[in-house]
Amino acid sequence: MAQVLRDERELRRVIGDGEGLPDGEVEGLEDRDLLELYRAMVLLRTYDERSVVYHRQGRIGTYAIFWNHEAMQAGAVYALERDDWIFPSYRESAIGLLRGMPASTILSWWRGHPAGWWNPLDYNVASICVPIGTHVPHAAGLAWGKKLRAERACAIAFFGDGATSEGSFHEGANFAAVMRAPAILFCNNNGWAISTPLSAQTAAETLADKAVGYGMPGVRVDGLDVLAVYEATREAVERARAGKGPTFIEAVSYRAAPHATADDPSAYIDLERVEEEKRNECVGRYERYLRRLGVLTDELVEEIRGEAQEVMRAGIAAAEAEPEADPELIFENAYVDPPPSLRDG
Ligand SMILES: Cc1ncc(C[n+]2csc(CCOP(=O)(O)OP(=O)(O)O)c2C)c(N)n1
Ligand SMILES: [Mg+2]
Question: Of all protein residues, whose CA lies closest to atom 17 belonging to ligand 1?
Fold first, then answer.
């Protein structure tokens, strides 16, 4: 198995291209696991594509698209156990689906409805974090707590390339490393922080280089290769459980969708590159790998897609069946002494 290198520069890759680039495999994964990973990716892809449609129909609010991030999310979560904690950013809003959270809960979150807030203990999935990077110290602290209690669990925080410029990222990374907390800092480097390109984000050669300064290993993986992501995360989890502290994983991609439904990237992005990324998108790439292995058939693809579509149909119906929320809730607990404009309004 590949080692976690201190300064691994090449992107780790397992899936080939069916031509010159050979397919690899991950030790310990059976056909059943390979299909579970596929099922998870299709569920996330379906959630994402349906959400964009629901947004256009006015059925959910602004939505942060994660199209082509499915390999990072599904691969990393598959390397965890149920007791391990996940700290998502808005880009991983639907990651709870992989822990059995109903789609209606997440759709309600994007509808701004109170039914969209869950008890993190029910799924070991923390609240979706919208402020950039503020959940990194939370994940580090929770992981440290697990260590103090001599529990086996670890914590993973997902954040973007832009988050690595935020103070809380640095505080969380330093704290996790000094405390040797069983934490995984998973950076989805999609090359953009809204319209800010990576070149304006950092002068470092790679984001994984930042790990060295904190004394933790940094790994770089192809973020569109679900098996490489899985393997790198599994190694990070093993390190965490062995008391060796945190790992920084930089999963590299190029954002192929708008930042969110309110964004028009044609004003700033390299559109040719986007088209190229779309042709090599992660679900199709994994599907072709599984077909080359003879693990996936047309019937199975249809069945898995059909199941995911049904989850979404049921999810939006349940979210829309929620009674309307009381607008007063917005102000409850917000003020000890409400200003007159609110009190008398
Ligand atoms: C503390 C904070 N500052 C600014 C913002 C506004 N904002 C929302 S998304 C975003 C870009 C983040 O980019 P990145 O970390 O690369 O994540 P990505 O959206 O690419 O997944 C910014 C600056 C915010 N949400 N929180
Ligand atoms: Mg980004």
Answer: 160
- What's the helix, strand, coil split of the chain in %, to 5? 50, 10, 40
Q: Token pair of 70, please? A: 């499915």
Ligand 1 cavity residues, CB under 6 Å: 91, 130-132, 159-163, 188, 190, 192-194, 259
Q: CA-based angle 233:235:236, to the nearest 5?
A: 60
Atom 18, ligand 1: residue with shortest CA distance: 160
pLDDT in tens, 159-197: 999 999 999 999 999 999 999 999 999 999 999 999 999
Q: From the CA of 162, which ligand is nearest?
A: 1
Count of other CB atoms within 10 angstroms of residue 250: 25
Q: Which protein residue's CA is at the shortest distance from atom 21 of ligand 1?
A: 160
Q: Catalytic positions, please?
A: 255, 259, 268
Which ligand 1 atom sits closest to the C-alpha of 164? 15
Q: What is the 254 CA–ligand 2 centroid distance (Å)?
A: 9
Give tens-digit pLDDT for 210-225. Answer: 999 999 999 999 999 9
Q: Which of 68, 115, 44, 126 is nearest to 252 (CA)?
A: 68
Q: Of 89, 132, 170, which is best to mutate to test ligand 1, by the most ligand atoms within 8 angstroms of its C-beta?
A: 132
Q: Is 0.85 topped by the overall pTM?
A: yes
Terminal Cα-to-Cα distance of the chain (whole angstroms) = 65
| Residue in this structure with the two tokens 């086996």, named with its chain if needed | 152
Backbone angles phi, psi at 191, to 5 degrees: 85, -10
Ligand 1 pocket mutation, candidates 95, 168, 194, 268, criterion most atoms within 8 A of CB: 194
Q: What is the dihedral angle through the alpha carbons of 286, 158, 254, 52, rounded to the nearest 10 degrees?
A: 80
pLDDT tens digits, one per residue of 26-75:
999 999 999 999 999 999 999 999 999 999 999 999 999 999 999 999 99
